Each structure stands twice: as structure tokens, then as C-alpha cells.
Amino acid sequence: MDRRGRFFEPLTSGEVRRGGGGAVLSSFGRGRRRARSASALSALARWPRTAAFLCLSLAAAGWVASREEPLRAPEEAKAQLGQVLADLGFSLDQVVLTGHRFTSDAAIFDALGSETSPFALDLGEAKRRIERLPWIEHASLVRRLPDTLLIEVRERKPFAIWHRGDKRYLIDVGGRMLAETDGHGFSELPQFAGEGAQSEAQRLSSALLAVPEIGRRVTLAERVGQRRWRLRLGQGPFVDLPERNMEAALQRLDKLHIRSGILDAGFVSIDLRLSDRVALRTKPGTKPRAGPRLSSL
User: Where are the domains of the chain?
Assistant: First the structure.
């Protein structure tokens, strides 16, 4: 208990105090909050706090009932009650954030709003606002009386980089844009380009997992006309996939490469859009590298 008579609990080792606003932040949520003891001693220790809260709540209710003039609106009652409780020590002085890495503290505080009473704060609405932030997949908000709010979030995972015009964006597995990026720190992520590519990226990635020899060569997958894919295989050829049955086309190309080494034969492009043939193109004035591996084509 402090000098104002307010009850408080010590912070966990993973939490640090933020200057200026009095908010309490965690070190990106890597430490879990300590489990509480279920012993009888721990239960008894909580009784003083519970009793104090009940007494303060009754006092606040009595204040509202004793007013000579009725409160004109629920909002006024809410504001007045919040002020009374704040005067008694029940104010939102500390916020503990855990689980965030890519989302800034400021973005979460802005979404939380400016309400300073732990009772006046609508936790459901605050949760919805926080979950509208690009990175946030799930948020959990818990009051810890008298003056603390716990916010635990789970962020989306970056799945790929989507090229749109001259900009690049991190997207999650569902195609949701998370943030603009220069690619630094995400070089291992697959690259996609073109309108509509973000929503179809997961399906193509799954198809490429079934043909790892092709998948490991893909440096960029471009969505053409929002209907089909064109794959760039590093320094090798472009591969045009059909609008439908792209999985079967990739399997066909994989078998051709195993049998003939077609991906290393010096072709500029390999067109698989027709189911009964493969169209090959070379650079003008050059011939593909001949050999027994191509004899079966």
C-alpha cells in the first residue's frame, strides 16, 4: 500500500517503467507473468483489497444517490463516478504491454484511447480498436485494480513480401498488408508481385512445396492479369503457369526437369499454359545447350 492508501502489486522481472506517462511496459513480452499461488495464505492476502474495493464502490454509489439533482445522461454519470473513483485512488496509472514486437507502444496507446478510469474504459471496444492495427491478430485486456491495465497481444507473422508498383509490403499468410518494407531483415521471405498476388500467394507457396527443386529456384512470382502466375527462376528461365490446374503444370515441369534438365538448358522462357505441349523460347541467335538430356523433349 502506498501513502495514498492505494494497493499495488510488484512488477514481474520482464517489465520496465516508462518515464513521463507512468506506463509500465514489458520487454516485448518474452517473460510470462508469474503464476499466482493458490494457497490459503494467498487467498487471505487478497481479502483486504477486495474489501477496500467494495467499500469504495458503496461510497461512490452513495455519492451518486445523494445528489440533489439527477444526472442528466448515462455519460455524465459515468464521468462523475469515474472522477469519484479516481479521487479515491482508482485511476488508470499503469499499462502493461506484452507480446508485441513489430507494433509500437504508441500505436497501442493511441488505439486504447484517453480514458483514465479503469471502470469507464470499455474493454471490448478497446480490444476491437487494438485488433484493427495491422500487425495485431489478437488482444486480451484485463483490469488489475486499483490502477493497472494488462494488455497482451499476439501479432501476425510476416509470410512474404509483396511488390506493388515501386513499393514493397510485408504480408501475412492471408494476404493482409502488415507494413511497408525495404526488405532488410526479411531476405528469406518469398517475393510476389502484381495486383491480386497477395491473396493467392499462400496457394502458390503450397504448390511449390510439392516440387522443391523448382521452388528453391523461384526468386519472384508475378501475378499476371490477376489470373495466372509467371515465375522467375533466378538466372534461369521464366515459367508461365496456366490459369487453372497450376499444380498439375508444376508437377509436369518437375518431371521434365528430372528427365531432361530443362531448367538448366539455357531457355529464356518455358510456357506451360497448354496442357498437351510445352512452348520453349531461346534468346535470338542462340540455341539451347544440346545433349542427351534434351532428347526426350
Answer: 15-155, 160-294
Q: Give the number of C-alpha atoms closer than 13 A to the C-alpha of residue 286, restricted to the C-beta side.
A: 11
Q: At the topology level of CATH, where does 160-294 sit?
A: Rossmann fold (3.40.50)
pTM tops 0.70, yes or no: no
Question: In CATH, what class is 15-155?
Answer: alpha beta
Full pLDDT tens readout for the chain, 297 residues: 444 444 444 433 334 333 333 344 433 333 333 333 333 333 434 445 555 555 555 555 554 444 445 545 565 655 666 666 666 556 778 889 999 999 999 999 999 887 767 667 788 999 999 999 999 999 999 988 888 889 999 999 999 999 999 999 999 999 999 999 998 989 899 999 999 999 999 999 999 999 999 999 999 999 999 999 999 999 899 999 999 999 999 999 999 999 999 999 889 999 999 988 999 998 876 666 654 445 445
